[in-house]
Amino acid sequence: MSESKTIRIGGGQGFWGDSPDAAIDMVKHGRLNYLACDYLAELTMSILQRKKNENPNAGFAKDFVHLFSAILEDSSKQNIKILANAGGVNVKALVEKLGEVVKGKNIKNYKIGYVEGDDLKDDLEKYMKEGYEFLNMDDGRRLENIKDKILNANVYFGHEPIIEALENQADVIVTGRAADSTLFMSPLMHEFGWDEKDYDSIARGIAVGHMLECGGQASGGNYQYDWRNIKNMDRLGFPIAEVTEDKTFFTKTDTSGGVVTEQSLKEQFLYEIHDPANYITPDVIADFSHAKIEEVKEDFVELKNVKGKKRSNLLKLSIGYHAGYKVETYLNFAWPDAYEKAKLASEIIMKKMERKNLKTKDIRIDFVGLNALHLKVANMNPDFVKNLNEVLLRIAIRTDTKEEAYKLVPEISPLQLNGPPGASFFGGRAKIQSVIGLWPTLILRDMLKLQTNIIEVK
């Protein structure tokens, strides 16, 4: 294979609900070979499962259908392959919608690839009877404790089914809970023919995915280093990887705003990396501990020295479960003495809850504008606190039952007249909401049976 071969992959989405503008710009102006879009997080999966429970035709990221429609004609003309884990918990329903879009655009011989099999919810009971405990990675509890509350159970899987779809010339590939970075690494592994034991190359592909999976976070969005000088953030571009057999660069389109710099990529590179020497993915254990990120020219940065090790025989299983109910409510207090008033209001509420014998699993009181983000390291200097223009009191509780949660609901708005002066009701009357808990655990790789499917829209 020619050493001059270059593959360009665009990071089209950073999460479910991200802006489509950068992806559309990349397809038009980015000279892409692939566009990969990451839609899923642990909580997203459970939300989608709840939507599917309400409507069997729901459960996927509908945003992707709109983006797909916007880029289909240009991507088809340029032979840009599209990958997305937008299938959520209902991949087939998404495939049907994509097929309708293709027919509506009158595009012929278009292949839609999709992957099934990451949903293990219906198999959990069988595995528990066989002795698998599915221990919670955070606290060691056994899944048996919540088995009647499970909403979804989806496995983070790797490259194999995606590469199978690419080998079958799929034009778009949609999945459920494919690992974020796998969406970006798989096309590279396919294009360059990397062997399963070429750990360094696969790890480099994972690093590409890690850089691109959060969209604008690598190209000037959420940028701590020099955020004041980001140009045209209203047209923020998302990063593009330009990869050869032995080199990796990052850039963006000339038509977009934002920046791709050494600093912006370093901020993204450190995101969610717990152990830089052992970044565990379904495809490889990547070693980023000696990586170098160097700016070659404006908006063109090279990544070097990523290494890899043999992957684990375990895969992460993310289980969502019903974890009770919550109420979140607010009161706003104005100067003078805004914090002192808000604090007294919180004490009044807690005394009322004590008289009602409120039983909570969790309770949180924050003073937004003072310490809701900085917590114990917030500036509590008396002069500073006394002169705050305003403070927003936030009280949130989690309970086992709706009845317990409701005890808080009617007690907030009366404090406008029955509490400290200067209060204003904020956000409307609180509503009781169901809480989704996350149960991270591990399974053996061979417990997962994935299936790649191809349909052709003629």
Folded structure, characterized:
The protein is of the alpha+beta class. It has 13 helices and 19 strands. It has a ten-stranded mixed β-sheet with strand order 11-12-8-7-1-2-3-6-4-19, sandwiched between helices. A hairpin with a 4-residue loop joins strand 7 (240-243) and strand 8 (248-251). Helix 3 crosses helix 4 (91-104), helix 6 packs across helix 7 and helix 7 (182-192) crosses helix 8 (199-212). It starts with 6 loop residues before the first strand and ends with a strand. The mean pLDDT is 96.
Short précis:
29% of the residues lie in helices and 26% in strands.
Q: Portion of residues in helices?
A: 25-40%
Report the mean per-residue pLDDT as an integer.
96
Strand runs, count: 19
Low-confidence stretches: none
Number of helices: 13
Q: Termini, distance in Å?
A: 33 Å
* Global shape: globular
Which sequence of strands runs across the widest sheet? 11-12-8-7-1-2-3-6-4-19
Keywords:
globular; 29% helix; 6-stranded antiparallel beta sheet; alpha+beta; 13 helices; 458 residues
Write the layout of secondary structure elements.
Blueprint: E1 7-13, H1 21-29, E2 34-37, H2 42-54, H3 62-78, E3 81-84, H4 91-104, E4 110-116, H5 124-129, E5 150-155, H6 160-167, E6 172-174, H7 182-192, H8 199-212, E7 240-243, E8 248-251, H9 262-269, E9 279-280, E10 285-287, E11 292-297, E12 300-304, E13 307-309, E14 314-334, H10 338-355, E15 362-368, H11 382-386, E16 390-399, H12 402-406, H13 415-418, E17 423-426, E18 433-444, E19 451-457
Parallel strand pairs: 1-2, 2-3, 3-6, 4-6
Antiparallel strand pairs: 1-7, 4-19, 5-14, 7-8, 8-12, 9-10, 10-13, 11-12, 14-16, 14-17, 14-18, 15-16
Helix pairs in contact: 1-3, 3-4, 6-7, 7-8
